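Sorry, explain these tokens?

___
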Amino acid sequence: MLSIVGSLVATAIVAYLWSSLPAGYWMGKVLRGRDFDIRAYGSHKTGATNVLRTLGPGPAIIVLILDISKGIGPALLATYVALFQGAGWGILVAGLSALIGHCFPIFIGFKGGRGVLTGAGVLLIISPFTFLIGAITTFSTIAISRYVSLGSLVGCLTTIVCGILLYILGPTLFPHISVNLPQMLYLVIAPILIALFHADNIGRLIQGTERKIGSKKTTEGPSEPGDYRWSRS
């Protein structure tokens, strides 16, 4: 029991510190200088969406890859390295710790992103099938509505439904893509947390003031040359 607890504690620490590396924040520093803080612009988050708004598509693609890797790395450790497996529960601990690390990074005052990409990185390792279905529903929703936040929320709901179905029906009907209990718990808990981190977006969606992708830039936040921020229309 003690060895399992020690394994899970080590997993949580490594995953949290790994995902606390603030790629979006550092990207702003590299491109705009040491006094620039991307959290003063757009959605005030460090994720790839706000990087796109503020710094442009090139930096956003780089941050997207790095943020996904912050979920993939810890998930791989918990899946294939014995020290971090924790009798099978390591993947749940690694996944949730990575998500928390991205959203509340210790290195920049616990103010990070919303966790969509990092959570998706963990999902890719746990259930590639669910990742694919979630990506389809997410990007389809974004393409139709032009709301990134709504697409993310639909992807969260998709993940929860797939996780429950693959756990209950998977062993009998879909043995090659079924998930075990710790994996299923991640597929349910992580999307709920991500949805909670989108509380302000949900409020704006209800009010009809949420920013749409591709809209004209807004005056929200400090003005910078080359600002790609979107309006709330």
